[in-house]
Amino acid sequence: MITIEDVYAADRVSEAGLARLRQRACEIRDQHWGREITYSRKVFIPLTNMCRNTCGYCVFVKHPGDPAANYLTPDDVLDIARRGERLGCKEALFSLGERPERRYPEAAAILKDLGYATTVDYLVDACRLVLEHTSLIPHVNAGTLTEEEVARLGEVSASMGMMLENVSKRLSKPGLPHHACPDKAPVLRLRTIEAAGRLGVPFTTGILIGIGETWSERIDSLIAINEIHLRHGNVQEVIVQNFRAKAGTAMAEWIEPSRHEMLKTLAAARIVLDPTISLQAPPNLDEEFEDYIDSGINDWGGISPLTRDHINPERAWPALGELSRRTSAKGYRLAERLTVYPRYLAECREALAGPLSRLARADGLAREQFTS
User: Fold this and answer.
1) Helix axes 147-154, 186-198, angle to 10 degrees
2) What is the bridge-based pairing of β-strands 36-48 and 91-96?
3) CA neighbor of 162 nearest in space, from 124, 127, 189
4) Which residue of 21, 87, 217, 291 has the lowest C-beta tally within 10 Å?
C-alpha cells in the first residue's frame, strides 16, 4: 500500500521505489479504466493570442505592436471548424489569452469593431456559431472565469478547461514564471474550477512541471484539484505537462524536467487523484511518450489532423498510426473519445445533449473511430 505520505516522500525515490510507484499507478488505472487509452480528435481555434499576462515560458501570446497579435473573425472560426469537421474532428478547442481588453486599448478596439465589450462575450457567440453550423462540440480554455461567466459558457460548450499549473504563490515572485500575471494567482484559478463544480461543468485542469516548483508543491497542487473533485465530481481529467524551454522567452535557458521526473510525477498523480479522474499526458512533448503508459495514464489528450499545438508549436503531434502502434506495443488499445467523457454525457445541458448523442456510441466514446 502506498500512502499520501509515501508520495510526498518520493522526491528522491530510488529506482526500485519508482518502479513500485509506477506499478501501483498502473494497477489503479487498469482497475478503473481498463485496457483502452483514449484521445480526442480536435481542431485548435485560437480565438485571440492577446493576453494581459506575460508568463515566462509562453510563446502563444502576442502583444499589440506585434503584427501577429489578433482576434479571429467569425468567418475564421467557422473556416477552421468546417475544415476540421471534414477531417472527422468532433471537438472544437477554443484557446485564448485572458482578458486582453483590460490591459490593451488595441484589444478593446478590435472587440468593439466585432460588436463585443469583452473577450468572454465574443467567445460565447463563437461557440454558438460552431454549434449551429457544424457538428463539432466546443471545449473552452478561457482561463480564470467568474461563476456567471462559467454559466454563460456552459450553455454553449460541453466542457471547459484551465491549467491550475501550481498552487504555489511563490511562483509569482520576481524572476519566476508567473510574475506580473494577475490571472495566475492560484486562488483565482481554484475558484474557477470550484465554480465549474458548483454548476456541474465537466472540467479539465492539470499541473505544469519544471517551472521552479518543488516536489511538495506538485503534490499540494494535485491534492487541491482532487479535493474540488471530491466535493463536486466535475474534474473529468487532469493533465501532467512537462515544461519545454522556448527561444525568445524569459525561461529560454531553464533546464527542462527529466523523463524520470515526468514518469514519477505521473505515477504520483494517478495515486493521489480519485480513480474516476482521467490522467492525461501530451504525447508530442517527449520522444518516448509510450513510457507514460507504464506510469498510469489512460488518455493522450486532444490531437488534431489539421491544426498544430499552438502552445508548443515546435512540437508536432505524433501521427495517429504511430500513436496507435506504440499504444498497442504496451498492450493497450487506442480509442477515440469525445470532449466529454462517457460518465458525464447523461448530465449534459439540453442544448448540447442532442449534438453529443449524435457523435457518441452506446459506451459514450466516439461513434466514428479514427484510430490509425
Assistant:
1) 50
2) parallel
3) 189
4) 87
